[in-house]
């Protein structure tokens, strides 16, 4: 009997242990499923917000100290309280001012040519006494804009030769012949003049008008061509005459010590790496800062966003790069990195929760201070940041480190992103020349994104490279107050006749900030 009882106890203990193991396994599964549900719930909330919510990043949340967000600058909150009578007076006064100062949303500039059209009565004889009436005044009843379409001209260049009759009759003297020399064209054996090339490039890279859409417009003007011809013109002009300008700009940019860099995707159909045309190619952008001379914005086309592309793009540069959190921006010799607070803020904004709003509030506090420091000199801005911004940054990181953010949800991702880039996010505190975020580079790359929506893709790598060159010169010219059309036309008119390859120093006279260009091509 004792043996039977002992056997039953052993079996019961085994059963209990088995059940405990199963319970522990079930509890572990429940924890994992709970985390997965939480992550999926965050994802559904985020996707729902993207689909139906506001697309702005403006915050409605309060900062940790109870102050309003940087992005909610409503002037009504600073106005004094009015009585009913005062409010009515203010409203009526405001309405009157608006009516009196109403400004048209369309107008002609002062330098537009004026044409006056005068309208006289058909009969100036008085109906009463039949006498001749005299003019007693005139009134301008309206102004209107008149458009005169561009016209196409055929320009024929003739070279005239001259000989000396006296020398010709004297056999002892060599024949003297002088010949007029036509200027060199931008593209040999092509009908495209500098003005036509400038128009094609301007329409594509400033108006974002694809080449195939330009064909009908050129046909209306009287030029019979096709989009393949236009593409070849852009590539040839960019490679032969705009590339030297681009290379000189890059040489000057690499001598600076602070750059903003970003990248965006694109498509190249015929790729040299054998990959499908559906595979993403990339356009990298680099932008200098205003306190280090004239602004330079350069684009670089590449088949990937690998670190090696970045190394080739910034070869010869040493200093600080302001960028986002992409892993390629890390551990490059001679380069330090400052990370972008706008990207950090977006992570906390995606974590749509109480803690997410606290994280956004810290970021908004920093941005509110940056707006106050915007017009200070770099040295004064650094001192202000050390005094006012640094305590907020320290408090923010202390809060993130002590908060238990775990798992794969949006809140944990925001905390991980912030802590992994702590050094880069703190870099702006020690240098008043750098911005708190990488928005200058993101703004610089926006024309490429707008163009991509219209161009869709580049057929060849040569076309993508030409796009990058033209975009670079367009954005740099605009940043320096230059009329891009007039600038390109001057480059394509002058450079073919200057021997720039033998005397590259001539290129400095054709930079967008040079005195000659500022005078001849300013807006």
Task: Describe this structure as you would to a colleague.
This protein has 523 residues and is of the alpha/beta class. Among the domains are: 169-244 and 485-520, no CATH class; 341-437, no CATH class. 49% of the residues lie in helices and 9% in strands. It has 16 helices and eight strands. It has helices at residues 2-52, 84-100, 165-169, 194-205, 211-221, 227-254, 307-313, 341-350, 354-373, 378-402, 410-420, 422-426, 439-455, 461-479, 484-494, 515-520, and strands at 161-163, 177-179, 258-270, 280-287, 297-302, 319-323, 335-339, 458-460. The strands form two sheets. Strands 3, 4, 5, 6, 7 and 8 form a six-stranded mixed β-sheet that branches. It is extended, with a radius of gyration of 34 Å. The relative contact order is 0.11. The model is unreliable at 61-100 (pLDDT under 50).
């Amino acid at each position: 009997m004792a043996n039977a009882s002992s056997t039953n106890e052993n079996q019961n203990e085994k059963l209990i242990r088995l059940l405990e193991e199963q319970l522990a396994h079930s509890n572990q599964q429940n924890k994992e499923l709970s985390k997965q549900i939480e992550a999926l719930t965050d994802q559904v909330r985020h996707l729902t917000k993207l689909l139906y919510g506001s697309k702005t990043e403006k915050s409605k949340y309060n900062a940790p100290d109870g102050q309003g967000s940087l992005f909610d600058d409503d002037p009504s909150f600073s106005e004094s309280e009015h009585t009913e009578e005062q409010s009515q007076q203010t409203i009526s006064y405001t309405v009157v001012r608006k009516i009196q100062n109403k400004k048209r949303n369309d107008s002609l500039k002062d330098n537009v040519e004026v044409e006056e059209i005068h309208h006289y009565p058909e009969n100036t004889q008085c109906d009463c006494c039949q006498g001749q009436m005299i003019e007693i005044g005139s009134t301008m009843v309206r102004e209107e804009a008149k458009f005169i379409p561009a016209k196409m001209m055929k320009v024929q260049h003739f070279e005239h030769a001259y000989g000396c009759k006296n020398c010709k009759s004297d056999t002892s003297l060599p024949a003297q012949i002088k010949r007029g020399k036509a200027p060199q064209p931008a593209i040999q054996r092509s009908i495209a003049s500098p003005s036509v090339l400038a128009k094609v490039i301007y329409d594509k890279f400033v108006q974002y008008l694809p080449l195939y859409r330009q064909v009908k417009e050129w046909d209306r003007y009287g030029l019979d061509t096709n989009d393949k011809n236009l593409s070849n013109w852009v590539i040839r002009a960019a490679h032969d005459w705009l590339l030297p300008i681009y290379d000189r700009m890059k040489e000057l940019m690499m001598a600076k010590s602070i750059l903003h860099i970003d990248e965006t995707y694109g498509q190249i159909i015929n790729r040299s790496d054998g990959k499908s045309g559906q595979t993403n190619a990339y356009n990298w952008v680099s932008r200098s800062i205003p306190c280090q001379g004239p602004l330079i914005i350069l684009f670089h086309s590449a088949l990937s966003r690998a670190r090696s592309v970045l190394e080739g793009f910034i070869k010869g540069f040493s200093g600080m790069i302001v960028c986002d959190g992409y892993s390629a921006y890390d551990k490059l010799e001679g380069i330090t990195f400052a990370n972008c607070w706008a990207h950090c803020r977006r992570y906390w904004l995606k974590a749509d929760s109480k803690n997410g709003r606290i994280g956004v509030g810290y970021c908004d506090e920093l941005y509110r201070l940056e707006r106050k420091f915007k017009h200070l000199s770099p040295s004064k801005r650094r001192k202000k940041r050390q005094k006012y911004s640094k305590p907020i940054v320290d408090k923010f990181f202390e809060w993130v480190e002590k908060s238990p953010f775990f798992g794969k949800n949006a809140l944990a991702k925001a905390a991980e992103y912030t802590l992994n880039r702590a050094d880069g996010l703190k870099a702006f505190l020690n240098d008043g020349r750098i911005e708190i975020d990488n928005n200058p580079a993101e703004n610089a790359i926006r024309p490429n994104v707008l163009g991509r929506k219209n161009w869709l893709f580049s057929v060849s790598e040569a076309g993508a490279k030409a796009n990058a060159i033209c975009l670079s010169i367009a954005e740099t010219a605009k940043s320096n107050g230059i009329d891009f059309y007039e600038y390109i036309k001057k480059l394509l008119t002058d450079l073919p006749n200057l021997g720039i390859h033998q005397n590259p120093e001539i290129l400095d006279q054709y930079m967008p900030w040079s005195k000659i260009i500022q005078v001849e091509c300013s807006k």
